[in-house]
Amino acid sequence: MGSIPKETVDRLLAENRTHDCGGAATCVRLEAIADLPTRFGTYQAVAFWNNHDQKEHAAFVHGDVVDRESIPVRVHSECLTGDAIGSLRCDCRDQLTESLRRIGQMEAGLVIYLRQEGRGIGFANKIRAYRLQDDGYDTVQANLMLGFRPDERDYAMAAHILGSLHVRSIELMTNNPQKVADLTRHGVRVVGRIPLVIPPNEHNEAYLETKRKRMGHLLDVEQGDDPMSDPA
Question: pTM higher than 0.70, yes or no?
Answer without folding.
Answer: yes
